[in-house]
C-alpha cells in the first residue's frame, strides 16, 4: 500500500494500526467510487461500460497506487493492448481454447514488450473469447472504461492524498 507519512508512523517507522485501517478504508472507498461511477454510466447510457477485469484494476489503482502496474500508462495501455490482441486472435483464428491461449500469451508478451503490464488486463483475451463481442468492445468498455477509471483515480487521489498519484517515472 502507500507509504504512511512519518507523522502517522510508529516509533519504529512502521504504520500504526490506525494508519493501516485508514489505508484499507480509503482503498475500499476508492474502489467503490470507481466501480459505482462506471456502473452508473452503464445504467444511464445502456452501454457496456463494465469489464470484469475492472474490479481487479481497482484493487491496484486504489489499494496499491504506487505500484508500477497501477500507473495510467499501464492501466490504459494494458487494457487496450490485451483487448485488441484478443479481438484480433478471435477474428483470425476463431473461437476455441487454443486461440484463446494464444491470445492471452501474446497479450502478456506485448504488454511486457511495451512496458504496459497491468495484470488485470491479462484476463481481457479470456473475457473476449468467452463473450465473443464485436470490434466496438475495444472502445467500450475497454478504452473508455479504463480511461474513466484512471480519471476517477486521479481525482480521488488528488482529493485524498493531495496529488500523490500517478507516480512519475514508473
From TrEMBL:
Keyword Transmembrane helix: yes
Key words of the record: Membrane, Transmembrane, Transmembrane helix
InterPro entries referenced in this protein's UniProt entry, alphabetically: HPP, TM_HPP
Residues covered by the HPP transmembrane region domain: 18-165
Transmembrane segments: 24-42, 48-64, 76-94, 137-157
The protein's name in its UniProt record: HPP family protein
Protein's organism: Caballeronia hypogeia
Organism classification: Bacteria, Pseudomonadati, Pseudomonadota, Betaproteobacteria, Burkholderiales
